[in-house]
Amino acid sequence: MRGACARQGWGGLSTVGRSSGIGVLDKAVGVLRAAAAEPCGLAELCQRTGLPRATAHRLAVGLEAHGLLHRGNDGRWRPGPTLAELAAGGADPLVEAASTVLPRLRDITGESVQLYRRDGIHRVCIAAAEPPSGLRDTVPVGSRLPMTAGSGARVLAAWAEPAVQRAILAEASFSERVLIDVRRRGWAQSVAERAAGVASVSAPVRDQSGQVIAAVSVSGPVERIGRRPGVRWAADLLAAAEAIQHRL
């Protein structure tokens, strides 16, 4: 049949079998089960579920939009953060892992600290720690920022899938060459890119499989942290990112 994959299921994960009587729900669960068994690309997803390519792709992209699936830099889908959040009773495991790390990083640097997660071509601040007084770069939790400026955006864009990178770079303040440098050295810095007078440095946070799932950032006034914040704080950011990964 044109446009369809083999109907043979993989590991008992064919869409034929258990049924709730709600076709699209059964197919979506089949896609989830297939990706949970082992990360897979579209061809493997079709083989495991027996779904046509267009259907498998549509469901996987929809599940990814809700965080139920996550597509890594290798183009393969795997279980997303929302599954872990639901399993934990609504608690976000990434935020929980960062809950003691961010305040310590704030105390070390004396500056504002944020944790960002990518959502499409935006980044969302999911946790933050602010110094008790003084001039600060406050980013409220829940803030949704474009992925076109700032060191946190650079980090998340550097390890995003190629299609997302292309969409970001079309409007970004940085270039593909910058993202190559970010991947090479393992962190990013920016000066007056997201906001006038603000500098920041960020590092990637990875999950246990090595996929970049967030960016941890330190930001503050340029006159205080300088125009090369990475020289001061990159090592501390990398240590904080590793600590968060260890706690996941």
TrEMBL record:
SMART domains: HTH_ICLR. PROSITE patterns: HTH_ICLR (PS51077), ICLR_ED (PS51078). Signal peptide: none annotated. One of its GO terms (biological process) is negative regulation of DNA-templated transcription. Residues 82-248 form the IclR-ED domain. Pfam families: HTH_IclR, IclR_C. The keyword Membrane does not apply. InterPro entries: GAF-like_dom_sf, HTH_MetabolicPath_Reg, Tscrpt_reg_IclR_C, Tscrpt_reg_IclR_N, WH-like_DNA-bd_sf, WH_DNA-bd_sf. One of its GO terms (molecular function) is DNA binding. PANTHER family: HELIX-TURN-HELIX TRANSCRIPTIONAL REGULATOR, ICLR FAMILY, TRANSCRIPTIONAL REGULATORY PROTEIN. This is Transcriptional regulator, IclR family. The lineage of its organism: Bacteria, Bacillati, Actinomycetota, Actinomycetes, Pseudonocardiales.
